Protein: SDR family oxidoreductase
Amino acid sequence: MDLGIDGRRAAVAASSAGLGLGVARALVAAGVHVAICGRHRDRVESAADDLGELATPLVADVSTPEGAEAFVAAARDALGGIDVLVPNAGGPPAGTFESTPLNAYEPALQLNLMSVVAMCHAAVPDMRARGWGRIVAITSSTVRQPAPSLILSNTARAGATAFLKTLAGEVAADGITVNSVQPGLHATDRMRQLGVDATTRPPDVPVGFVGDPDDFGAVCAFLCSQQARFVTGAAIPVDGGSYRGLQ
Structure:
């Protein structure tokens, strides 16, 4: 399927592995020039080599607003502009209300809320000036169904979802769509850190298997497409049917 975005330019955060890399791979397959980033030069350069000539590796740490904004600026300089922005970052440490100290909340909010805000602040003005843009943020299924052991992620990503929903309404008339995608269990380093075995049949996933980052990437790439121009303000679960609610 031709997504109508051949030649566009994308900045995909935290994309040297996992879901970010899956999104970058899907965008490259659609003909998009993609700036990817990671904290470790060898890892991000290896990922770029795997993606091919349409990928530009950048060393960046998006865990703070300053680092997130710097990544967007570097991507704009490297690509000559940004048409597509994919905010993304790793998750904060696991923990419950009782086990999580108060001073752990601010770094989590910087990582999963304020980094998203900063990337959008850096990218949206140019999108508005051109009259076209796509923002597809990677959040988590815990926004829709909070996990008891992930109180920091639940809190920060819920805030990001509210920000993105608000932004979507403000920039819709400028030709910019803003959506978030909520991954469930996928075969990533984060899942392994949380002790989930990707080789077993997960009991809470109706499709019967753990998600593949490339399948997730294909969903995000469609939301970046020309065909998805009427989809904005959505928060879409990609979780194999794990979320059972009506909304």
